[in-house]
Amino acid sequence: MSIDTQTARRVAKLARIQVEDDALPALAAEFSAILGFIEQLNEVDVDGIEPMTSVTPQRLKRRDDVVTDGDQQPAVLKNAPDAREGFFAVPKVVE
Predict the structure, then answer these.
(1) Which residues contact 82 (CB under 8 A, 6 or more apart)?
(2) Contacts of 12 (CB under 8 A, 6+ apart)
(3) Cα–Cα distance between 8 and 26 in angstroms, integer?
(4) Which of 15, 29, 75, 94 qualifies as a FRET site for 61, CA 20 to 30 Å off?
(5) What gap in Å lies between CA 61 and CA 48, rounded to an integer?
(6) How far apart are CA 89 and CA 78, in angstroms?
(7) Assembly and partners (predicted)?
């Protein structure tokens, strides 16, 4: 498939990319090369092949999904300018 300069101009406009008129032929050639590569990929028979996320099978380390409070309250509140009853205290801004 071949892309002409008018199509390249329209794609650039849709992508909100400013392209000078003298750069449009090169952009059209790049688009054509990309589409040619996609056509080559479409020729590959991938029936029965399972998609993979890595070249080596890996299992991610897992941990129990347990809700906790983090046990960090004292460490966090020690940096607060004003803390009361285990919470940040802030000045009232709305009457």
Answers:
(1) 88, 89, 90
(2) 18, 19, 24, 27
(3) 9
(4) 75
(5) 29
(6) 12
(7) Heterotrimer of A, B and C subunits.
